[in-house]
Amino acid sequence: MNLQDRSLTRKLAIALAIKLLVLSGLWWGFVREQRVPVDSDAAATQMLGSAPMKTLTPQE
What we know:
Number of helices: 2
Distance between the termini: 70 Å
Oligomer: single chain
Strand content: under 5%
Radius of gyration: 24 Å
Number of strands: 0
Order of helices and strands: HH
């Protein structure tokens, strides 16, 4: 690796580190507190197009 390659590698590493810090800061500031409730029946209906069948567990 010559001097120009090392310089480019260092600059790319710095740019990636800055981008990671910015993205982490944006997530921390705007997304971290957001919660999405998940309903398995509603998700199955959305994906499969019909209500899922309820399975019964055998009584012992």
